[in-house]
Protein 1
Amino acid sequence: MKFPLWTLPVVVVLFIAIRISVSRTFRSIERRQKGKGRIESIPFWIKGFWALLALAVLILVVWAPRNANPSVSNPPANPAPAAVKP
C-alpha cells in the first residue's frame, strides 16, 4: 500500500509532539517530588545548548553573509562578431 507524500511529515510531527508531552508530564512530576522550580530543574548543559543555539540563530539572522561570487549580468542582445582570420 502506498501512502501519500504528506503522511511521513505528519507522523514525525505527531511522534515528536507526543514525546514532548510525555516528557513534560514526567518532568513536572519530578519537579513536584523534588520541590524545585522550573528553571532550577533544567540541567546546565541543556541551558548552554539552548544559549548556543540562540546565539547561532542570532548570528545567522543579523550577520547574513553574502555570496562572494559576482552576479552574472545578462549578455548583450547582439554580440560583436568575432574577427575571422583567412
Note: The first helix runs from residue 7 to 34.
Protein 2
Amino acid sequence: MFGNIPDDLIRWRCTLCPATFTQPGATIDQKEKHLSYLGFTIKIQDTEIDLSDWVNEVKWCGSYEPSVKEIFLLWSCESGESYFHCLDDIQVELVTDMGDTIKRGLNA
C-alpha cells in the first residue's frame, strides 16, 4: 500500500492480532518480549480507558522498548478508536514491572 519505505526511516514494523512491535533489522535470535507495564490507563478529560489487559499481551523485539505514545497509537489502530486530535491532552498512569506508579502526559 505505501510502497517500499527504507528501513532506516522506520522505527517499528507493527502487526495486529496479536499486537507486536518489531524493530527493522532485529535478528531472529532476539526474542520477543512483553512490555514492562503491569498497568496502563489512559485518561482523556473525564474518560478513563484501562488498557492493562491489552498491554499485557503486546510483544516487542528490538534493542529498545516502544514508547508509551507508540503503544497507545498501536492500540488506537487496533481498536479503531481515534484520539489523534487530543494527544497533547492525554494523561497516562503506568504501573511498572517493579510496582511503581507513574503519572505523566502521553507526549512526555
Note: Residues 88 and 107 are 6 Å apart (CA to CA).
Protein 3
Amino acid sequence: MDWVNIGIGAISAMFAYFLFTSDNNKDTTDHTEDAVSDIEINDYSGRHVTLSCQTCRKLKRHKEIEPNMYQCVKCKRHVDLRVS
C-alpha cells in the first residue's frame, strides 16, 4: 500500500469527523431576554430574490412584500408563490 494514500485517507477521515461533530452554536447566551417581547416584526421589504419576470421576460430582482409574495422592482408585477 502506498503511504500517500494512507495519509490522504487519514486526513479525509479526520476532516469528515470534525465536520460532523462540530457544534455551530457555541454561543450559549440567550439574547432574547434583552429584547422587548411586545414587538412583532412583520417587515418583508428587506428580502430580495432573483426571479424570472413574465412581463420583463428576464431575470429581475423581486422584493418580498408578504410571505412568499414578491413584486418586480422594475415593472411592479406581483408573483405569488404561496400554496393555494
Note: Helices lie at 3-21.
